[in-house]
Amino acid sequence: MVKDSEFLTLVFQSILDEIDVGLHVVDELGNTIVYNNKMMQIEDMEKHDVLNKNLMDVFMFSKQQDSTLVQALQEGKTIKNVKQSYFNNKGQEITTINHTYPIVQDGKIRGAVEIAKDVTKLERLIRENMNKKGSTTYTFDSILGTSPAIQDVIENAKRATRTSSSVLLAGETGTGKELFAQSIHNGSDRSGGPFISQNCAALPDSLVESILFGTKKGAFTGAVDQPGLFEQAHGGTLLLDEINSLNLSLQAKLLRALQERKIRRIGSTKDTPIDVRIIATMNEDPIDAIAGERMRKDLYYRLSVVTLIIPPLRERKEDILLLASEFIQKNNHLFQMNVEHISDDVKQFFLSYDWPGNIRELEHMIEGAMNFMTDEQTITASHLPYQYRMKIKPADIPEPETPRHQPAADLKEKMESFEKYVIENVLRKHGHNISKAAQELGISRQSLQYRLKKFSHSSND
To answer: Do 448 and 441 meet the contact criterion of CB atoms below 8 Å apart?
Structure first.
């Protein structure tokens, strides 16, 4: 029977490893005595790299005093909501917001506890946004398609370049919304200004306001003077991707900024005028978002001065082969290949498939197919990624021709011939690696070897 103390230790450890914040505890010498799973994830470390080792031997800080744990040990003070950047033993930069306090017993500091929240990715996003000014690459010439559905949207988007009115781009994932946004920016009088793009779904609610509007030094512990996205985009365009992912209270603050054309940094008492064109995107029908309370109606009206609905690929099928050809040429250049054609059965599949991932899915499919090719010039069904190849009907895949002097094969012979044809293609693609071929075919290695043996015997008969 497990002793009570052992059971409590198990419970304690289970709780530590399940909580969604990092926990790091050191003793009075700075040696780690508690290090939970979340902290491992944040710092990309293993427990054995940290436990029972001195904090300063494992992590690198610009100065020793920059470690909030060391400050708690040396000064005996509680430190709340401080941002800290440091490096793990692999040289990777980690940024956290910490709540740190000393462990005091009988008036003596016996250790320190740190509770950490990871903001490493967020810091990287901020830096990327700071470097994105004017980094647009797409124009209207980049938008391919001759179908009336896409040409109508292109013409309306071109008209939108004449003003600085807000634009709402609605369309399924992968339809090319950012391509339209960049084209509108580059075709407008703001093309010389910055183009700042931010995916709202990537921002945690707790920090999104400071990212959008900026912070003033002293607003909270560790806060510095930091311009937000609105200030970074001054004189240019701010693209807010997946605007419907922002919570409703933040949508209200965004609406106020758009109406008043001014923002106020967190911690500041001063309003800053802004000159920014807003382009917002949504991957769902705006009416559905409003009905589902994911979008404020008043913000929708403010953003949708110009509304462009980007059609899904299944509604512009006459553009599919043109797009496929463009992606082939792009990958020919990247991979130093000379692919020129798509087989008829693959073309037929492209035209009948629904494309839930739209243009992005088609582009990835072409790239995946060309990764399976060597010196061939035609993309065939055997080159398509497995999940697509299985959607093509066997009748659509050309089978080996029967010499004219031979009688037509019966059903069993036709099936065996087709099975052999498919297996040989997959084996050839994987350099006759039995394990990889069996995995792709969805059969066991032994089953594949049995079939190969059967084919060998039949060819010797």
So the answer is: yes
Does residue 432 sit within a domain?
A: yes
Domain closes at, from 264, 286, 311: 311
Same domain, 300 and 180: yes
Same domain for 340 and 456? yes
**C-alpha distances in angstroms, 351 versus 312, 315, 362, 398?**
13, 11, 11, 18
pLDDT per residue, tens digit, the chain (461 aa), is: 445 667 777 777 788 888 888 999 999 999 999 999 999 989 989 888 899 999 988 888 866 557 889 989 988 989 887 878 888 887 788 888 889 999 999 889 999 999 998 877 666 665 555 444 445 689 999 999 999 999 999 999 999 999 999 999 999 999 999 999 999 999 999 999 999 998 888 777 777 888 899 888 766 655 677 888 999 999 999 999 999 999 899 999 999 999 999 999 888 889 999 999 999 999 999 999 999 999 999 999 999 999 999 999 999 999 999 999 999 999 998 888 999 999 999 999 999 999 999 999 999 999 989 988 888 899 999 898 878 887 775 544 444 444 444 444 455 666 677 777 778 877 877 777 888 887 777 777 777 777 787 777 555 54
Distance of CA 189 to the CA centre of its chain: 31
Predicted TM-score (pTM) of the model is 0.60
Quote the domain boundaries for residue 182: 123-311
Spatial CA neighbour of 79 closest among 91, 69, 93, 87 = 69
Whether 82 is in a domain gets the answer yes
Same domain assignment for residues 361 and 378: yes
For residue 196, which of 161, 164, 230, 145 has the smallest C-alpha distance? 230
CATH code assigned at 97: 3.30.450.20
Report the sign of the C-alpha dihedral through residues 207, 209, 214, 215, in that order.
negative
Number of folded domains in the chain? 3
Q: Is 414 exposed, middle or buried (0-12, 13-18, 19+ CB in 10 A)?
A: middle
Pair 32, 150 in one domain: no
Q: Which two tokens stand for residue 331?
A: 């990958």
- Torsion-angle region of residue 106: left (phi > 0), alpha (psi -120 to 50) or beta? left
Residues 254 and 330 in one domain: no
How far apart, in Å, do the first and last CA atoms of the chain sit? 69
Q: State whether 435 and 326 are in the same domain.
A: yes
Long-range contacts of 382-389 (CB under 8 A, 24+ apart): 382/422, 382/425, 382/426, 382/429, 383/429, 384/346, 384/349, 386/440, 388/349, 388/353
